[in-house]
Each structure stands twice: as structure tokens, then as C-alpha cells.
Amino acid sequence: MLTFLHISDTHISGDPEYHPPWIPEYVPHPNRGAESLVTAIDQLPFEIDFILHTGDVCADPHEADYHCARELLSQFRQPVFMLPGNHDSADYMQAILHDGAKLQVLRDAHLEVKSFPLITLDTNGPGDVHAPTLRDKQIDFFADALDAAGDQPTIVAMHHSPIETGVPWLDDHMRIQNGDRVQRILRAHRDKLVGVFHGHIHQQTASLGDGVLYICCPSTWSNLSGYPGLGDGVADPLTPGGFNLVMIRDGRSFVRRYNLPLLRR
Ligand SMILES: [Fe+2]
């Protein structure tokens, strides 16, 4: 049995004035959301084995952002596993956030947590940063790691999603371009997969494809929309930041969303 929290897209910034022009006026500084997350998790009335952060830890690949992130993420009592997102610098993450114990940065990695395999992919491949193409050697690594995991219930995590949703903006501009190759590997291992946990699209979603469950959790900063016919990124002002509780019991996954307070400037 395993209990973890899925968090994503905190976009922590070391710039106190950070507010990029494409973000609506009402959206507060991202650190307010991250602080609210730390408080909410600290108050949970149950034990957590670890926290999984599926990327965009920081707003920009700037050194100061990672010092700020370290200060915030160090406040968690639980181990934090972090993946780089398209806004991150994997080098700064490794140099500033990774301590090899409580804070661990994972790229293409395969580890075991309480005997559950956790397989991660750094999906920041070549091409469009929002819709990258994974390299052959990463896809080979992923296939080998899933083979090596045996029959154990296995958790998979990545920043970008490989699966089509039917929402044009998500499918055309926010998805791994050669995601079909990733999906083929996942499909072959579907009987043992707990789920594929991802971020990037800043919204709570669940997709079921070929018997594999794909879950995205909300950003703690600003959330986006997803609906039929949507061709571009559109803010969702009604959705507060949040995170997901994931419970694995006897090979079953139970996922519950937690909302953070709706923050406004
Ligand atoms: Fe993001």
C-alpha cells in the first residue's frame, strides 16, 4: 500500500514582481500558490509516503528561482520527487534542489519506493518546448525500465502527456509529438500500471486510453481550460489551484483532488 500526493506546475519565481503578460491580471504571484500548498499539505490528517512534482517547478530557468524553490520545497516533511518541465532548468534543479535524500530530481529514472517501481521520463526533448519529440534513446530507456519492473504495480510520471484528448489545443500544441510510441509501450504493460501522472496542461484531467489511466493535476498558480473545439490556451478563472491524493491499495488506484483557496491579486 502506498499513499502519495501529485503536485505540478508551481512556477515558483525569485522575482517578487513576476507576472508575465500572457497571464490574466487576477492571477497572483505563483509563490502565493506554492505557499498555500505547503500549508495545506502540512495540515493533512494522514501520513504520506512522498510528494511527486511533475514539473515546471520554477517559472524561468534562472538560478534565483531555484533558491526560492528550495526554500519552499524544503518545508515539506515528506520526500519530494521532482521532474523538470519546459519552464525548468534541469541543471539548476540538479545543482540547487537535489540533495539525494529529501529532495530528489528525476529525469529518465527508475527507482523503487516502498517496493513500488516509479519510472519517470524527462519529456523535454527536441522541437517545440510545449510539444516535444522524445529521442529514440529515451523511448528505449522507457521500454527497458517497464520491462525491468516485472509484475509490480508501477507508477509512471512525466511532464508532458503522450495521449490525445479530443481537445484540439491540447492535442496539437501541448502533447508529446511521438506520444504514440510511448503509448505503445504503456499499452504493453497496462496490467501493472497504477497510472501515468503528468502536468503541463494546468488542469485536472483523467484520460483512459487502451486500459491506461492518465492523470493531470491542477497547477498551484494559474489554471487553463480544455473543452471540445478549443484551439488555443484559455485561462480558467473559476478553478482554484490544487493537488491530488493518490492511494494505491491492492493494485487499485484511488485519486482525490484537493482544492487550495482561490487566490486573487
Ligand atoms: Fe506549467
Describe this structure in words.
With 265 residues, this protein is an alpha/beta fold. The protein has one domain: 4-Layer Sandwich (Purple Acid Phosphatase, chain A, domain 2), CATH 3.60.21. 23% of the residues lie in helices and 24% in strands. It has six helices and twelve strands. It has helices spanning 30-42, 63-73, 90-97, 136-148, 168-173, 179-188, and strands spanning 2-7, 50-53, 80-82, 103-105, 109-113, 116-121, 154-158, 193-198, 205-209, 212-216, 242-249, 252-259. The strands form two sheets. Strands 4-3-2-1-11-12 form a six-stranded mixed β-sheet, with helices on one face. The chain has a six-stranded mixed β-sheet with strand order 5-6-7-8-10-9, covered by helices on one side. A hairpin with a 2-residue loop joins strand 9 (205-209) and strand 10. Helix 2 (63-73) crosses helix 3 and helix 4 runs parallel beside helix 6. The longest helix has 13 residues, at 30-42. The model has no long low-confidence stretch (mean pLDDT 97). The chain binds fe (ii) ion (FE2).
